[in-house]
């Protein structure tokens, strides 16, 4: 059911680890760049600083995307889904989003049997 | 680290519940529609049938999106991220993606303090 929330803090559900998945989308191209996780503090910090900040599950610490690489995500708009269990950050991405150097983390596609190959990047996505 | 996988089944990591998050994106408009979860069988079925199929965490069953509502998601392309812990399905969405009747589940945006308001839908996204 849709919750009638006026405030993101009433709506968002953090899971048993205190996390909610967050999808980053390039606001200019529409390209989906990555999926990571936010805790309450990283969400608050993202809204306040306008630099997208995740929770690093491997390092167990706040992760200002780009703090070491320079590849910041400047927040243009932060959306929440109907049930409050997912976040969408619409960003201006500086440099590549992926640690591999690819523009997006989603750079491989599967055929019907599951075989992977590089995506064909459309003009819209460049 | 990027895994050198040739096959999605080598690459994808299912969590302790056997699930991986899957983001649905409208292939025509670029709009991010929803986030849900897939288990191994729903991923296999999605690739094979080209109708996006999730795992319903609330009902604990396979969930062919649109099976009851008619609002199917026809798979155009299925991507996997660098680390294999997220899926992106690029779809042709029949009708609204959201059970509220909204085109996308991400229909509310938060300001710096967290206050929610309806998104302004761009022409590109209509």
Give a brief outline of the structure:
Two copies of one chain form a homodimer. By secondary structure, chain A is mainly beta.
Set out the fold topology.
2 copies of one chain form a homodimer.
Chain A: H1 8-11, E1 20-26, E2 32-38, H2 40-49, E3 53-56, E4 61-64, E5 73-80, E6 87-93, E7 108-110, E8 116-118
Strand order of the largest sheet of chain A: 2-1-6-5
User: What proportion strand of chain A?
Assistant: 25-35%
N- to C-terminal separation of chain A?
Answer: 37 Å
Largest sheet of chain A: 4 strands, mixed
**Rg value of chain A:** 15 Å
Unreliable stretches of chain A, pLDDT < 50, 5 or more residues? none
Largest interface (CB < 8 Å)? A-B, 48 and 48 residues
SSE-based structural type of chain A: mainly beta
The number of distinct β-strands of chain A equals 8
Can you count the helices of chain A?
2
Helix content of chain A: 10-25%
Oligomer: homodimer
Order of helices and strands of chain A: HEEHEEEEEE
pLDDT average of chain A, as an integer?
A: 93
Shape of chain A: globular
Task: Walk me through the structure.
2 copies of one chain form a homodimer. Chain A has 126 residues and is mostly beta strands. Chain A is built from 2 helices and 8 strands; from the N terminus they run H-E-E-H-E-E-E-E-E-E. A 4-stranded mixed beta sheet of chain A has the order 2-1-6-5. In chain A, strand 7 (108-110) and strand 8 (116-118) form a beta hairpin. Chain A is globular, with a radius of gyration of 15 Å. The mean pLDDT of chain A is 93. Chains A and B meet through helix 1, strand 1, strand 2, helix 2 and strand 5 of A and helix 1, strand 1, strand 2, helix 2 and strand 5 of B. Strand 7 (108-110) of chain A pairs antiparallel with strand 5 (73-80) of chain B, so a sheet runs across the interface.
